[in-house]
Design brief:
alpha/beta; DNA polymerase, domain 1; Rossmann fold; ten-stranded mixed sheet; two-stranded antiparallel ribbon; globular; disordered N terminus; binds adenosine-5'-diphosphate; binds magnesium ion
């Protein structure tokens, strides 16, 4: 089995690398202004802001005063002032409609294997965007990740899929089955999937950033990044009410990085999110997905998956920018994701 691994730094290293990286990353992203330029923000406050994900002016511009106060203990007046200054100093990137249309023309669509499921999101999972599948255990989230990792290689010959696996559910054996089902060369398909196991949320976030190295340093044509599961580590690590804001901010930052890279390098991001199927607590209400509005906001497409009759699965599209809310059935078999009937 030829599985290549992305370099996986040790946990301690992850921390120091993150600390070193963040201020630098800011300078690269916005050379003119950083959060250090905000009035009344000293080194200590800046550190606190960065630690919970407020690492650039945009994140502050869109924050609420309460979030900044929670993160730093600063006063209400200062929090409001920072937000106002961040907003006024940001160059809002307006793009004309025709430029946008030109960019939309570059969008490629990755196929799941089920025509109905592809049609639900406009003909396949889009590059340049984040698609989230949430649903209970066994609803098919991971199988779709495997299918996309294989099928993206049919879109372009040298296409690379990156699989960030947080729950140890990536199976090369399944990739072989799916590759055979799609009529692709199994060895080749396996070689073109780069898998990394993420051991905690910081590691997961770092791996997402590292995708850019694969593109820039190794020259790989990354077409797909799977984060399966997006939320499991976050949920496990941030327990209790006091930690909710921090969890949301980190998750927000993680998604921001993924969204930015997806846009910049025109790859598809597919993330999974497990929800509980406790009938007394949960009736398929999408707001119950972990990460709530943060994930909802960052994802361009959200699909809610559930088990249907006779082993089928049902996917429901939730608040998409240009597609009607709709559902379809599909099923998973040995060779892939298939249409029902
Ligand atoms: P989750 O949503 O928890 O990630 P999965 O994507 O792992 O769930 O889906 C697991 C389901 O996929 C199984 O319950 C089974 O129905 C189906 N499945 C997995 N492997 C196979 C296989 N080799 N043949 C047929 N169905 C399979
Ligand atoms: Mg899974």
């Amino acid at each position: 089995m030829e599985q290549e691994l992305i370099e996986m730094p040790l946990e301690a290293e992850v921390e120091t690398k993150r600390k070193k990286r963040e201020p630098k990353m800011e300078k690269e992203a916005t050379p003119e202004k950083t959060i250090y330029d905000l009035p009344g923000v000293g080194a200590a406050t800046a550190e606190k802001l960065i630690a919970v994900g407020f690492s650039d002016l945009m994140s502050i511009a869109v924050a609420t005063p309460a979030e900044l106060i929670d993160a730093t203990g600063m006063g209400d007046a200062l929090a409001k002032k920072l937000i106002a200054v961040a907003r006024s100093s940001l160059e809002m990137g307006f793009e004309s409609g025709d430029e946008l249309l030109k960019r939309r023309e570059k969008v490629q669509r990755l196929h799941t294997g089920s025509k109905a499921l592809d049609a639900l999101v406009g003909g396949g999972f889009e590059t340049g965007a984040i698609t989230e599948c949430f649903g209970e255990f066994g609803s098919g989230k991971t199988q779709i990740g495997h299918a996309l990792a294989v099928n993206c290689q049919a879109v372009e010959k040298d296409a690379i899929a990156v699989y960030i696996d947080t729950e140890n559910t990536f199976r090369p054996e399944r990739i072989i089955q799916f590759a055979k089902g799609a009529g692709l060369d199994e060895e080749q398909v396996l070689r073109n999937i780069k898998v990394a196991r993420a051991y905690n949320s910081d590691h997961q976030m770092l791996l997402a950033e590292k995708v850019e190295d694969l593109i820039k340093k190794q020259g790989l044509n990354v077409k797909l990044v799977v984060v399966d599961s997006l939320t499991a580590h976050f949920r496990a690590e941030f327990i209790g009410r006091g930690t909710l804001a921090e969890r949301q901010q980190k998750l927000n930052k993680h998604l921001h990085i993924l969204a930015k890279l997806a846009d910049k390098h025109n790859f598809c991001v597919y993330v999974t999110n497990q929800v509980m199927a406790k009938p007394d607590m949960f009736f398929g209400d999408p707001t119950q997905a972990i990460g709530g509005h943060i994930v909802a906001h960052a994802s361009t497409f959200r699909l809610y998956l559930r088990k249907g009759k006779k082993g089928t699965r049902v996917a429901k599209l939730i608040d998409s920018p240009s597609m009607p809310e709709a559902e379809c059935g599909f099923y998973v078999d040995e060779s892939g994701i298939k249409d029902t009937e």
